Amino acid sequence: MTVPTAYSYPDRMGRILLASLEEVVGRSGLQAALHLAGLDEPSDGALSFQTIAALHEKLEQMYGPRGGRGLALRAGRVCFKYGLREFGAEMGLTENAFRLLPMPVKLRTAAQSFADLFNKQTDQIVRIEAAEGKLIWRIERCPLCWERHAGEAICHLAVGLLQESLYWLSGGKIFNVQETQCVARGESACVIEIDTNPLD
Fold first, then answer.
1. Based on the structure, what is the number of domains in the chain?
2. How many Cβ atoms from other residues are within 10 Å of residue 178's Cβ?
3. Is there a domain that residue 88 lies in?
4. Does some domain include residue 134?
5. Beta-strand (E) ranges in the chain?
């Protein structure tokens, strides 16, 4: 009988996540979180959903809920920087034709490209939906809160990633990005709402 493979981020994505966490909390902070979670640092960079969720949980325990949230938001922003370097060309985000698109088209195109990247490169499932004045980022299989239970939405790294991507796409504008539903809270998906108009 074959045992099903655990859901995971493969090497390229796992390395981006680890490098981002290390940049934010330092090498010793990352190693401490891995140790507390009973994990060894993966040699190839691949990360199971259980590992990703456990790392985030331990960072919240080490730095407190508010500190852990802030660190996860910052790590998400750093993830975008590394992700753009690693995947930007193959997603078409660094081409001049993309940069010249009107902002609404650029936003929808980039959101779908991001979703496609996660859906093809990882076991995460992301769906994009449009609503009045909003873009909805729906994570139907989320590694950040995998098998966790919480009283509030906890996928802060995904929020930080989207915040930074919008900042980059718009040339420095700030957008309201908020997680309104979370599987850890017993809801069917992790839902992040993005206002399509910037705050400033």
1. 1
2. 13
3. yes
4. yes
5. 8-9, 47-48, 125-131, 134-141, 177-181, 190-195
Q: Cβ of 59: how many Cβ atoms within 10 Å?
A: 26
Residue 168: in which H helix or E strand, if any? helix 156-169
**Alpha-carbon separation of residue 107 from 136, 163, 165 (angstroms):** 12, 12, 9
Entry pTM: 0.92
Tell me the pLDDT tens digit for each residue of 68-108. 999 999 999 999 999 999 999 889 888 888 888 998 899 99
End-to-end, the C-alpha distance of the chain in Å comes to: 57
CATH of the domain at 58: 3.90.1520.10
Domain that holds residue 81: 8-195
What pLDDT, on the 0 to 100 scale, is given for residue 38? 83
Flag whether 1 is in a domain.
no
114, part of any domain: yes
